[in-house]
Amino acid sequence: MSRIYDMLQRAERNRRVREPETRSPSARVISVANNKGGIGKSTLATNLAVYLRALHEDLPILVLSLDDQSPVDRMFGLGGPPPPESLTAALRRGALDRAIVLGQYGVHYVPVCRYVSELKREVREPQFIGRALLRTSWRGLVLLDTKSDLELLTQGAMLASDLVLVPVSDHASLLEAERVFSWLDDHGVARERARVVLTLIDLRIKYREGEQHDLLALLLWEIRRRGYPLLQSFVSRSPKVESLYSNPEGRAISVLHGAKGSIVSEQLHHLAQEVFAALPLPGAPGEVGR
Fold first, then answer.
1. How crowded is residue 81: how many other Cβ atoms within 10 Å of its Cβ?
2. What are the sequence ranges of the domains in the chain?
3. What is the DSSP letter of 259?
């Protein structure tokens, strides 16, 4: 028994030594990850940033995307000069400070870089993202929008995160969520650091009478059967919200500003509150367990 106890003690000491290398003590990090595309990852990340900023105006919020096709620039760009460094250059240097600019709605962001995927060929381990965040003088919240894969950049985002949001909108995306949780399990990341978020749920999809009579009920049943941590708030599919991302202006408009008073706006408001309560944020009262 003493040998087992000694092994457990050593493992715990090693965990405590490694963790600061990949998770910043001065910022809290949320990543949005699922291998399935078209399920609202970027919509969730960008709008969550806006709603969290509106709920807590004294909380600095930074959004960056590891996807070279994210709408981050169209949502937050103000048309000013580019920052001194691109996202790719900043990650190569190991700190993001020179890539950050102030954007729309008071949200800071790092402009999308079309060459960011090249980093997957240059680095050998995912912890480099966490180390870059650790060396960045950001005091607040960081939202990481990931690409629709589970490759190196997405892995690094998840390892660097205090909270991993896993969007699910249908059965196919639920199967891909299984891969996310399996990866977290394999790498010793506690499941409590991840939450399934039901996004773009089409409430018009109905089934025969029974316990799983519509898509929302079916997904809830499947998620609970698998034992995945789940946020209670969900976001339904809405043509109005989709129009905010496809319009003659070519901009992406936040739900808070383009569809205020809609059911989706109410859903995102509750979701932001729930995320805030699940995450220990610097200088904020939303500590886990309170």
1. 6
2. 27-277
3. S
For residue 78 the two structure tokens come to: 């103000």
Integer angstrom CA distances of residue 151 from 30, 111, 121: 18, 21, 11
Which residue carries 């580019």 as its tokens?
Answer: 82
Cβ neighbours for 83, distance < 8 A, ≥ 6 positions apart: 98, 99, 100, 101, 110, 111
pLDDT for res 280: 59
Q: Give the angle 274-279-282 at the CA atoms, nearest 5°.
A: 125
Report pLDDT for 205: 84
C-beta of residue 277 within 8 angstroms of C-beta of residue 283 = no
| Cβ neighbourhood burial of 105 (10 Å; 0-12, 13-18, 19+) | middle
Superfamily of domain 27-277: P-loop containing nucleotide triphosphate hydrolases (3.40.50.300)
Return the closest-CA partner of residue 110 out of 135, 133, 130.
Answer: 133
Give, in order, the Cα–Cα distances in Å from 3 to each of 6, 8, 126, 137, 188: 5, 9, 32, 42, 21
For the chain (290 residues), the mean pLDDT of every run of 10, in chain order, is 45 40 68 94 96 94 94 93 95 96 97 92 91 93 95 95 96 95 94 94 79 85 95 92 83 94 96 90 38
Write the DSSP assignment of 24-70 as a string of letters: -SSSEEEEE--S-SSSSHHHHHHHHHHHHHHH-TTS-EEEEESSTT-
Nearest CA among 76, 73, 75 for reference residue 111: 73
CA-closest candidate to residue 34, choices 135, 176, 152, 202: 176
